[in-house]
Structure formats: C-alpha cells, structure tokens
Amino acid sequence: MLTGEDIDLLVLLLHYASPNDGIKLYFRSDKGSHTVVYDIKVMKRVLGSKICQSAISACIHRMLHHFHNIWNWKEVCCAKADKR
After folding, report:
1. The whole model's pTM is what?
2. Backbone angles phi, psi at 37, to 5 degrees
3. CB–CB of 28/1 below 8 Å?
C-alpha cells in the first residue's frame, strides 16, 4: 500500500501495474478524515489503457517542463554572476 497525496505517484502506479503478476497494489490518500483505499489494478482496468497512457504522458511532460524552467533559471543566475 502506498499512502500519499501526489498525483504523480498514482499515475506511476497505474503505469507500472500489471494485471497478471499476482501482486496486490493499493493507493490511499493521506489527506482528509474520510480515507478511501483504491485498488490500482481495478482502477487501471476501469480507466482503460488510453487514459492511463495519456496520464503518464502528461506527467512526463510536466516533469520535463519543470526541469526546463530550473535549467533556464540556473542559466540566468550564472549569467548575472558572471557579469559582476
């Protein structure tokens, strides 16, 4: 069981869950008083492969965008430091 509130964790679980490996995989939010436990393999089957693939693509895109912003910030900071 994985407990957290990060949507990226849920997306990765959906991506890597295999329906035939015999491993039980659950996700539970750590927010709020009403706790719901999700069976990842059931969720993956209900959502379908296209939605799960779209979710992982969006997750990767967001991560790459974040790294790009960090890289640009470092270039700006280093350029300012070099001018001093």
Report:
1. 0.55
2. -105, 125
3. yes
